[in-house]
Amino acid sequence: MVCAESGNNDRGGREIHLCENLYGKWTARNCQAEISAQGETRYAALENLDAVVAALKGDGGHEPIDENI
Q1: pTM of the prediction?
Q2: Alpha-carbon distance 37 to 46, whole Å?
Q3: Which residues have a Cβ under 8 Å from the Cβ of 1 and sit 6 or more positions away?
Q4: Which pLDDT score, from 0 to 100, does residue 12 have?
Q5: CA–CA gap between residue 14 and residue 2 (Å, rounded)
Q6: Residue 20's closest CA among 28, 12, 8?
Q7: Alpha-carbon span 42 to 19, nearest angstrom
Q8: What is the spatial distance between Cα 45 and Cα 59, in angstroms, rounded to a whole number?
Q9: CA-to-CA distance for 21 and 37, rounded, in angstroms?
Q10: Contacts of 45-50 spanning 24+ positions with Cβ under 8 A
Q11: Of 21, 19, 50, 25, which Cα lies nearest the Cα of 40?
Q12: What is the mean pLDDT of each run of 10 residues along the chain (69 residues)?
């Protein structure tokens, strides 16, 4: 397993942990929000984490349209 942290959090930024799982998938964890997301690549895991954080803050997604219902 490979893990990395986003660095020093003294400036009030987000603390993100990024780990490669045993089967090659990646997990990104936002420590302040206490949520995680996975992806096939590091980039995908981070993108998925950003999408989850945005959705929790009310900044993500869109209203469903009739085709989605």
Answers
A1: 0.69
A2: 8
A3: 19, 20, 21, 22
A4: 62
A5: 20
A6: 28
A7: 8
A8: 19
A9: 12
A10: 45/18, 46/16, 46/18, 49/16
A11: 25
A12: 52 83 94 93 95 82 70
| Residues across the chain | 69
Dihedral sign of CA atoms 61, 63, 68, 69 in order: positive
The tokens of 23 are what?
């089967």
DSSP 51-67: HHHHHHHT-S-----GG
In whole angstroms, give the CA distance from residue 5 to residue 2: 11
Structure tokens given for 24: 């090659």
